[in-house]
Every structure is written in C-alpha cells, then in structure tokens.
Specification:
Chain B: This is Cytochrome c2. Chain B: One of its GO terms (molecular function) is electron transfer activity. Chain B: It comes from Thalassobacter stenotrophicus. The complex is a heterodimer of chains A (420) and B (438). Chain A is of the alpha+beta class and 420 residues long. Chain A folds into two domains: 215 residues, Sulfite Oxidase, Chain A, domain 2; 123 residues, Sandwich (Immunoglobulin-like), CATH 2.60.40. Chain A has eight helices and 23 strands. In chain A, the strands form six sheets. Chain A has a five-stranded mixed β-sheet. In chain A, strands 5, 6, 9, 10 and 11 form a five-stranded antiparallel β-sheet that branches. By secondary structure, chain B is mainly alpha-helical. Chain B contains 13 helices and ten strands. In chain B, the strands form three sheets. Chain B has a three-stranded antiparallel β-sheet with strand order 5-9-10, with no helix packed on it. In chain B, a hairpin with a 7-residue loop joins strand 7 and strand 8. Chain B is extended. The two termini of chain B are 53 Å apart. The N terminus of chain B is likely disordered. Classes of the chains: A alpha+beta (420), B mainly alpha (438). Chains A and B meet through helix 1, strand 3, strand 4, helix 6 and strand 12 of A and strand 1, helix 3, helix 6, strand 4 and helix 8 of B. Strand 14 of chain A pairs parallel with strand 4 of chain B, so a sheet runs across the interface.
C-alpha cells in the first residue's frame, strides 16, 4: 500500500472510532465529565444483594449470552446431539462446567451416587462391583486435560461453513479432573494387563456408548473421574463418574460409566466402526484414530468477537492443544500465512491440556487474515487445510485440525474464510 | 466374556494326573537299581543345590546393595527436595495385593450387564429370526425414524443401500455399504435401540431385525433366517475396507519439521467466505442463514499487509442484553417438574414450548382441546386421519388412555412407544404438557 494512502486511512479510522464511542463503552473517552463518575449512581447508594441470595451462584445477567449453543439442523434430535462451548467469550484455559459443550447419544441421565455401580469383569481374577463410596477410597490424582470431540471443526472439511469460533471449534472443554487411575482398579480386580489385551468401557445411559481402549493406554493415564474443577461432575458430563482418556477423542470419555471389561480384542462397537472412522477418497476408511493432533485457533478477534475499539492496542488471544503432550510454541500470522510471529504463551502448557496464547499488537486498522499454528513437544506442526485435504480428501468427518483463518475487515468485523 | 473356567481348572487337573502317573512308574521299577540311581541322583542334587545356593546368595547380596544404594539416592533426593521446599507431588500409589475395596460380582449381575458381542460372534445369545418377521418388527419399532425400507427419515440414519459410493463425493455409509462386522449391528440394536426404549428387544426380535436390515440391503432373501448358529458365517461387504490409524507414517513424518516464518508464499487472498452466518439469539440456540457476501472486492495480501481497505463493509451488530427465557406457567409445581422428567421419553420425537416444530411426531403445544390429527404439515397415520374426520378432540382422558397403551388405543398409530405403565407418570406428563397450554 502507498504511503500517500496512510494518513487518510488513519483519519477515517479515528472518525469511525469516535462514532462508535457514542454508542458503545466509549464513555471513558468522552469529551465532557462522565455522569457515571460525577453523578451518584444507584449501586453507590442503595444496598446490594445479601449473602445466600443465590446459594449456588450463576453468572451475572449481563453475561447471559455466554452459553452453550447448538446448531439444530446438524443432527436429527437434540437428544442425540451436540452443542458448543462459547470459547469466543472465555479466557484463561479452564472451562466452567456450566458452559462446557455437551454430546449425548441418548440424552443426559440422572444417576444418583447411591444408584451408581461400576463392574469390572472379563479377563480378571476377581470380577468386582464398586459403589461410588468405594471409588472415593482409592488413592486419587488431579490433572487438567482437554476433551475434544473428534468431530470438532468437522463441518469445515467442505470449506468455510459456520461463522463463529464457538461453532467451528467449540466441541472442546478443559477441566481439572479428580479421579482414580484406571490401572488401580484393574489391579484391584487382578486383571490380565498384558499389552495385547483391551479394556472395553460402557456407560449406564440408553446408548451405553461402548469403546475399546488398548491396554497400554489404560495403564498409562486414563482416570476414572468423579470431580471436575473441584466440584461434582455435572449431569451432562457424566455424574457421578466418567472416564477421562487424556489426549484422545471425546467419544472415548465414557460418561455415567458402569462397566469395564478386559477383553482379548477390540469389540468394534458401533462407535468405533460406523462412527468415529473416516472415509478417504479411494473409499477405504481409517479406524482407531484415537489421538487428537495438535491444533490451535484464535478466539478473539473472531466472528463473535469483533474489534469494537478501532485501531491501536489489540490483544489477539487464542487456544492451543495437543493430544501428544505439551504445546511448545504457537505462531500467529496476520497476513494469511505469508509471515508468522511467535506468540506469547500464557503459561507453559500442561500436557494434553489447553494452552492460552497471546499476540499483543498495535493494530493499524488495516484488514487482516488471522491464523494460528501450534507446535507440540513431538515437533509436530499444525497443518493447513490444503495439507490435510491432500492427505485425506474431503469426505472425512473427524479429526480436522487445520489452520483456521479469520478475515478481519477495517471495521473490525471478523469472518470465517478460506485463503489461497 | 468372563475368564474361562478351563483356565482355572485345567492346571489343577493336569497336576493331579501327572502325580498319579509318576506314582505308578516308580512302583513298577526294580527296587535295587532304583536305590543306587536315587543315591547317585541325590549326591548330584546336593552338589547342584549348594552351587545354586551360593549363586543365589551372591545375587541377593548384590541386589540388596543395589536397593540400599537406590534407597539412599531416593532419600538424598527427598531430603534435597524437602530442603528446597519444592515439588513433593507423586502419582497415586497402587497397593500390593490391592485395597480390598468393592465386592465380588454375582454371576447374574455379570450376565445382566455383560451383553456385548464380539466380531467373531462371542457373546451372542441363542435365538433366531427371519427377514420376513423382521420386517414386521422393524415397521413397528424402527421405521418411524429409519423409514419403512431402512432408507432413513428426516436426519435419522439410513441403514440400507449406498453400495459402491464410498469413493464418491458423498459416500453413503450404511450397515450394508460400510459396517465391517455384523456383530456391531446386532450388539448396537440389542443394547441401544429402539431410540428411547433401549434394552427392550428380545434376542429373537434382534436376529429378525438384523435379518431384515440385511434383506433391505439386498444381501439376503426374505426367507433368510439369522441365528446364533449361522451368524459367524456372514461376511460383510466392507469387511476389508478399514486400515488402522496410519497418521504416524503418512502425516507425522512430514509435519514434524521446522515451519516457515517469512515469505512463506508471495501473496494470498480469500477463496471462500463462510457459507452460513450464525445469529445467537438471547434465548439460546442459533439461527443460521446463508451468507449473501461474495469474495468480490476483498483485498489480496502480501508480506506488507492488505492491498487496500475495501469499501462498504458491514458494521458489527450490537447484541441486545439477554433476558431470561420465560418459564412455563406453573413450572414450580412438583407435578409439572415430575412430568418434565417423564417427558424425556417423549422428547426425542415431540417438541414442546417456544418454537416447537413437528419432528418425528407432531409438536404438542396447546394439545388439550385440539382436534386429533390436526397439526398442519404433519403426516398422520390413517387412524389419526379418521379420528380427525370424526371430530375427536384431545382431552386428559383421551391422552391418558392413549399413552397407557398407544397401540391398543389407536390401532395403526406410527408412534413407536410402548406406553407409560405408572398412573403417576401419566398424571405428571399430562400436567407437564398442560403447562404449555398456550
């Protein structure tokens, strides 16, 4: 762009910002004294809510649009469906349970702790039944892990589809789990833990959602979890007990877990043959694609989080994660992948957990093509859409970890796009 | 499957047999020869034992020294750690011999829950059913979602056809065209179907339904009978169509490289804009609409940024502050709350409340006082069409009778629901539906 053009553009932007100031929260820049400061406000004079007004607090009403949302036409019924975490409006890394995405196959069930039973059977010396109280008596661990649905970003194989990071990337949440290592329960039952064996897990709900997990993973870091973010699991996340399978696709994190069976081969249930497998261009399908590869996305600015403040200091904020371990680096591009700048990590990423990254920039008000690219501890670099399509074609549904692009125009409006 | 009994009993039985055989052999030997050789043997054994014992003692002493060194190293490390006041975290221990928690599972309990079926047919119960009968069962229990011919209604899964489409642009993945094992179909149908009444199908019904699905895929004739006996013989069309995850070889090997940072391409431009715009109304959910914008007039980008600032871009839309959604009239009453729980059995097919639409069943807003079979745009069964012609109107008594035994009360209804058995459930769900009177 020419130097001649710059001054007039800057002037235009300043003008735009001034107009916006009247309507939005620009009062801090107002020309005259601000009545919010100079005049006595109700809340400065009258009394607020007493303690116990809401024994279990909910977000203040001004935040009521920060909720899970579904896209109705994606599925046949809300009972066997999915909704999306409002990741555009969240910060840090921990997802509050109340807005963490839900995926049910036959609806979320109400299962009381007293009615909870967990059976271990199959290739074990002692088939056992545990009560909820039993689970709380085994030594436990705490870990933060992301849980991502294998179908996250799945719509986008066919090109830019849904305008909002909540809908393109919101099938993910990240919580601190408290639970008993699965290996402890397997040992208690005297399970055959040789590495050619499998663990088949199923839930107590009508779908039962059985999945087969190879013994090596079962003995590694799988947790039988009963708390998330310090409190009991919510109903929709599998109260009272769910499985946590770190770094692996969310479908394996069986909720309302009721049975663990040691078997000598994969069961090849509906959820590991008909679903959660991907067809490639030549008609063959890939199965047992458990690990979620490294991925990142800019959560703000994004279509639901336009830049409202005009040119000047801008925080570009996003999330990165990898099922292979820690995120070691995230790069951000503002020109659609021509030039990359290494972002600042909020803190060193936990293994198999969300990592927050930032690029703090002085926005000149020119349009941007924003992208983020994650790297994990294995040296894996998040691929572009073209790289993924070259490998897998366009008929895949699951495991789309492509680099996402937001087009941000001069007004700060962001849109989901694809670039050359 | 439980661990086989033979694995527990065979070693014990084998040991007994071996001991008996040895006893007979010894008795038959010549006594003198036996004595000499046994003495020689004992001398050799004592020598061998002495040597083994020496070796063992040495090994044990060495191991003890190693352990002592290890112990001291751990102690030193722990002391150093404690002195620095840092990380004392450790994984949860696993006690030798376990914790003695839990109780033994009863065989009846294992039988009740352990019903999964493996690809080789292990886990199948005895039973049989043919495609002919399966068609009847399917029509009654499955067709309201999957269609009379397993072709799928609305967004529900299509179960039949799609052969030779897996390498097309839009592969049709059905039981026939895609599923690699028949066990998967049997297991899933028996355990998780019908949707909303899981676990109610008998083994025979399941064999019949699976036989019918095979028939609707043109894989068998209508007199084909499927049973536990011939199950394992059946090979699926796509049994060899799957490869185990090979991303490590195909992708990781390429993508674990140092990425480009500068001048990664000469220029770039938008090739596609979002197909759908997604509005996020205050009451939750989303409204999607087609995006009318085209890529015309968008700037291209080079290393120095955008080529120009495009004119007439849309202003950001201010989202109005959300108001809490209005609760139904008497949502507070316990009966309505209980009814909401019962209604979970209905809601996979019937919507109710603001914006309720017809799904597999008609919406239920303002049901009482409404003529039967009268919701616009819903395709009723013949029995409900005639009920409308007769001018029959829904009231509490009619609904209670219908919900208690749907198929007996409305013979020919498409509603695949077996009915509510408890009077209190009927009262509660009626109260709940009533709370959406207007």
């Amino acid at each position: 762009m020419s130097d001649l053009f710059k001054p007039s553009r800057r002037a235009f932007l300043r003008g735009g910002a001034a107009v916006a100031a009247g309507s939005v929260a620009g009062a801090a820049n107002a020309a005259g004294p601000d009545p919010l400061i100079t005049e006595l406000q109700d809340w400065e004079s009258y009394l607020g809510a007493g303690v116990d007004e809401t024994p279990y607090g909910l977000p203040i009403r001004f935040e009521q649009d920060v909720v899970r949302r579904n896209v109705e036409w994606l599925t046949a019924s809300p009972i066997s469906s999915i909704n999306f975490t409002p990741i555009h409006a969240l910060e840090g890394t921990i997802t509050p349970q109340g807005c963490a995405f839900e995926r049910h196959h036959s609806g979320a069930i109400e299962l009381a702790k007293d009615d909870f039973r967990l059976m271990i059977n199959g290739l074990v010396d002692k088939p056992l039944v545990f009560s909820y109280e039993d689970i709380e008596r085994f030594p436990r661990e705490n870990h933060v892990y992301f849980c991502e649905c294998a179908a996250n970003t799945g719509m986008e194989w066919a090109g830019a589809q849904l305008n909002g990071v909540q809908f393109t990337h919101g099938m993910i949440h990240n919580m601190e789990y408290t639970g008993v290592p699965l290996r402890t329960l397997l040992a208690e039952a005297g399970a055959d833990m040789s590495l050619d064996k499998w663990v088949y897990v199923e839930g107590a709900d009508a779908s039962s959602n059985g999945r087969s997990i190879p013994m090596e993973k079962a003995l590694d870091d799988v947790l039988v979890a009963f708390k998330a973010n310090g409190e009991a699991l919510r109903m929709e996340h599998g109260y009272p007990v769910r499985l946590v399978v770190p770094g692996w696709e969310g479908n394996m994190w069986v909720k309302w877990i009721r049975r663990i069976e040691v078997v000598d081969r994969a069961v090849e249930s509906r959820e590991e043959t008909s679903k959660y497998t991907d067809v490639y261009e030549d008609g063959t399908a890939r199965k047992w694609t458990w690990v979620m590869d490294a991925k990142s996305v800019i959560t703000s600015p994004s279509p639901q989080m336009p830049i409202k403040h005009g040119a000047g200091p801008l925080v570009i904020s996003g999330l990165a994660w990898s099922g292979h371990g820690q995120i070691t680096r995230v790069d951000v591009s503002r020109n659609g992948g021509i030039t990359w700048e290494t972002a600042r990590l909020g803190k060193q990423g936990d293994t198999k957990a969300l990592t927050r990254f930032y690029l703090d920039v002085d926005w000149d008000g020119a349009p941007m093509l924003l992208q983020a690219r994650a790297m994990d501890e294995t040296g894996y670099v998040q691929p572009t859409k073209d790289q993924l399509r070259e490998q897998r074609g366009e008929n895949a549904v699951y495991h789309n970890n492509c680099i996402q692009t937001w087009y941000v125009n001069a007004e700060g409006v962001a849109e989901n796009v694809e670039v050359s | 499957m439980s661990k086989s009994l033979s694995q527990i009993f065979l070693p014990a039985a084998g040991g007994t047999a071996l001991a008996a055989a040895l006893a007979i052999t010894i008795a038959n030997r010549d006594y003198g020869n036996d004595k000499i050789s046994s003495l020689e043997g004992r001398v050799a054994q004592v020598e061998a034992n002495a040597s083994a014992a020496t070796q063992k003692a040495r090994a044990e002493a060495q191991r003890a020294a190693e352990l002592q060194a290890e112990f001291e190293a751990v102690q030193a490390a722990a002391a150093a750690t404690a002195a620095m006041g840092v990380d004392l975290t450790a994984p949860a221990p696993v006690a030798d011999g376990g914790y003695g928690l839990g109780r033994a599972a009863h065989p009846e309990e294992i039988a009740a829950w352990d019903v999964d079926v493996l690809p080789d047919g292990r886990g199948l119960p005895e039973g049989r059913g043919d495609a002919y009968w399966g068609e009847e069962v399917f029509a009654e229990k499955c067709a309201s979602c999957h269609g009379d011919f397993a072709e799928g209604a609305d967004n529900w899964p299509v179960l039949a056809g799609g052969f030779d489409t897996l390498d097309d642009e839009d592969p049709v993945k059905t039981v026939g065209s895609y599923w690699p094992h028949l066990s998967t179909a049997w297991d899933y149908i028996h355990r998780s179907m019908p949707f909303g009444e899981a676990g109610t199908l008998t083994a025979d019904e399941t064999y019949a339904i699976v036989a019918y699905i095979l028939y609707s895929n043109d894989l068998v004739d209508d007199d084909f009978e499927l049973s536990h006996e011939n199950f394992a013989e059946f090979e699926m069309h796509n049994k060899d169509g799957f490869v185990v995850d090979d991303r490590a070889e195909l992708e990781y090997s390429q993508w674990r490289t140092e990425p480009c940072m500068d001048n990664c391409k000469p220029e770039t431009e938008v090739t596609m804009r979002s197909v759908f715009l997604v509005d996020t109304p205050a009451e939750g959910g989303t409204e999607s609409m087609m995006n009318p914008a085209t890529i015309e007039g968008l700037p291209s980008f080079s290393a120095s940024g955008a080529a120009f600032i495009p004119q007439a871009a849309a202003k950001p839309v201010e989202v109005a502050a959300a108001e809490p959604a209005a609760a139904p009239a008497d949502a507070g009453s316990e009966l309505v709350a209980a009814g909401a729980r019962v209604y979970r059995k209905c809601k996979s097919c019937h919507q109710i409340g603001d914006g309720a639409k017809n799904r597999t069943g008609p919406h239920l807003n303002g049901l009482f006082g409404r003529e039967m079979g009268s919701v616009d745009g819903f395709g009723y069964s013949r029995v409900f069409q005639s009920a409308q012609e007769e001018g029959r109107v829904w009231d509490e008594a009619e609904l209670a009778a219908f919900l208690a035994q749907p198929k007996a009360y409305m013979n020919g209804t498409k509603m695949a629901f077996s009915g509510l058995k408890k009077a209190e459930d009927l009262d509660a769900v009626i109260a709940y539906i009533k709370s959406y009177e207007n």
